[in-house]
Amino acid sequence: MRLLPPPRTAAALVAAGFRRWATYRQAALAGAFTNTVFGVVKVSVLLGVAAAAGGSVAGYDRLELSTYTWLSQGLIGVVHVFGWTEVAERVRSGDIAIDLARPLDLQVAWLLQDLGRAAYATGVRFVVPLAVGALFFGLRVPGSVWTLPLFVVSTVLAVVVSFGCRLLVNLCAFWLLDVRGLVTFYVLTSTLLMGMIVPVPLFPTWLRVLAYATPFPAIVQAPVDVATERLSGLDALALVASQLGWAALVLVLGRIVLARATRRLVVQGG
Amino acid sequence: MASALTPYAAIVRSRVAAQATYRTSFAAEVAGQVFLTVVEFAEVYVIFTRVEAVGGFSYAEVALLFGLAATGFSLADLVVGQVEHVSRHVRDGSFDVFLLRPLSALAQLASSEFQLRRVGRLAQALVILVVALVVVDVQWTPARVLLAVLTPLLGAVVFGAIFVATAAVSFWLVEGQEAANAFTYGGNYLSSWPFDVFAVAVRSFFTFVVPTAFVAYVPTLGLLGRAESSGFASWVPWCTPLVAFLTCGVAALAWRTGVRHYVGTGS
Amino acid sequence: MTGAVIEVEELRRDFVVRRSAGRLRRERHVVAAVDGVSFSVPGGQTVGYIGANGAGKSTTIKLLTGILVPTSGRVRVCGLDPVRQRRDLARRIGVVFGQRSALWWDLPLGDSFRILAAIHRLPAAAAHQRLEECVEILDMAAFLATPVRQLSLGQRMRGEVTAALLHSPELLVLDEPTIGLDVVTKQRLRSFLRTSQERYGTTVLLTTHDLPDIERLSDRILVLDRGRLVFDGDLAGLVARVGAERVLVVDLAQPGPALDDVPGTSLRSVEADGMRQQLAFRAQDTSAAAVVAAVTSRAELTDLTIREPHIEDVVQRLYVTSQRS
Questions:
Q1: Beta pairing partners, B58
Q2: pLDDT of residue C284
Q3: CB–CB of B50 and A58 under 8 A?
């Protein structure tokens, strides 16, 4: 079995992921609305912090804090921060056997569908908060023409890292009776460490070191750092390269776990 | 009163029994709820490693805001938060089953979706509240003690009303349930911070439309004796009971209208 | 019980349907799911409410139980206005939706009954007695301790019917109660409903696709077609109305000529050299006795049977005739 499906199959999988999520347009708009309201609170608090700190905090000025807030709020839907248990549910129901019988690499097929989902989320859940932020709070315009394409690459990698982590959590369903508790812990830990609640550079040293030892900052903090040009030139490229590294690591881990799980399923008959 | 609660008590008991069957999963879920409040508080912690005060509130004072809001919110979440599932029941038609029983549909929904694990969230919120009350610099008087005790309870009433009112909207926007989170969870998030950091429009909205200002911020001004210096009359911190009463009225009206709409369209 | 349990007058319910017309335009159509239906059901009667998919059966049930507001017309159930007095009504009726569950899926069946007894505030003794009775007749003792989600469809449906009868309702409404059940369970459920109806005088309104349900259970049949009541009467009347044919099958002692001259009949078939012949006739043309007499005067019989019209055919014919009119 080849790892990558032929281009036509791959395109069909991405399109399938896109269409599946496109059927929930009302839900996507509702999500964008909620992300925007939370963004208003988040940016107000951070601007309050900047004001108390004399105009800027941890190297973020007011405009950068606003840009951080609205990009991170927009990325919530794109990188799918909150509970994704689709694979775990298929494992629990036994439908996973059907997936394993398909002539496709499971991990790649799921990843392609997730990219389709992210593409749809970009259209609604990324655009709405960003537009509101630009209108009412202002956003920093990048100085370099390379920033935008690099941000796109960084965001795609962020989706891949996020997917890889979520898949690992889901695959635990092969060994655990109930993954809900685990998913809660994962969502809470990852949202904090990816820099979704407060920018990672604001963390006290011990927490910052801890965060950068995990793949989570690669999911939100990295694309935001690229867009706000906290790192530029070669440093920005190095950041994207580190995302690539994390993506490779979580995907390879996922393959190993999936292989073990499959063997377990075949041996024990699910 | 006791006998009026019997059917609901029977339903809640059955929920608790079912949820406690798998002890390990249940323990994990309670721990998850405790951790939820810990991570929410992490934001406050991280920010106060950088600055001494936000919006004129010290670390202990923001912790008090957080404790009051979180306690009120998690109590409301435990008792009625599950009404947010109404959209699912409307979508799959199982809401009909509630209407075919001689009980209030709202109370049936609240009891039959009861989640005992949410006590974890409440417990952790209470810990933060108590620590904040001890640490914060308040000149205690009997009136302020009463205010400190009443505030989380009335906050729960306000949040409960917001849960019900926003859930009622999903009789119309069946797929749009997540928008309700902006006012329920969002209201909780916002109440954890001094209102001084928000723009006038935001402040007005969360004072007069979705009145979460009265859940933590305004009563805290009363506890700290800062109402007047923040531009409020000294009696304003005591308005929370009235606000709670009014939001409940609006929520009841919204819910009734929602059920009437459901019965009217047969969706 | 006296007086009408269900009274429906000129009942109408419209739905607004939006259909896309072209790329952007959406057209608004008003469709009457129930269109001017009137009937009245006296206490103790068992009524079969039948019709094709989308005929308006489920809409009628929702209107009767207070889940849906009528567009116009009048509904009274147990003397109450279903929508305005929904909770009072809920104490006096039992409803089973074949497709929906009133039980708690993660609890043992017995626990669901206990909660329902609390919901209806039944005195412990009364609830216990009623439950014992249902458990015995429906043979549920073996799975009372099983969580509902693990029950088979037949077991669950027996539980659903018990749940609806626990508070001894005056009216039992059954929406497709036998859908998907195996033959044995269907039989058991039918005889239970019959017994319970006879013992307590419960009024029953039953919608079904399963016409044997109607044959076995109903005193009266209402046929709905595209929102309109097209028939109200008993099975014999329905048969007569559509002119369905009964068939007399006779076995003769020796091969004989074709019996093609019996008044009021038409010869369907001649088999085995005329040893077995089938004569079709309609109730309005002649009677079974007259046909038998006419046949015996022509030939010596060894055996005879009368085949009743199949109810599927009857209803099918009714649809055809109502569409023509």
A1: B53
A2: 75
A3: yes
